[in-house]
Amino acid sequence: MNALNGIRGNGPNDGDEPAIILLGIEKRSYYVYKGDEFLNQLLLVDGEFPTPILCVNFDTIFDAKRVIGGGFSLAAYWAIHPEIIARLRADKYLIEADE
Hints:
By secondary structure, the chain is an alpha/beta fold. Helix content is 22%, strand content 25%. It is built from 3 helices and 5 strands. A 5-stranded mixed beta sheet has the order 4-2-1-3-5. The protein is globular, with a radius of gyration of 13 Å. The termini are close together. The relative contact order is 0.25.
């Protein structure tokens, strides 16, 4: 995904893509694309997880499939409640990119 270029994290692989990548579909539903090992910490208000978190927003599921690939299925990913996304956004942990 070209939206990942140039985004640095503060995790153990500083300079690489962020350890947590979320997918936003229609800016209404969100899924953990990468970093599901941090899922429990993301859900906690005071959880500890690597930042920043990248959220790549797609207009439709079809746009996501076009970019990610034909075998892409949202059923394979954990969903994140929009209020969790709002908290991450308010705490300035979230970097959003429109694809």
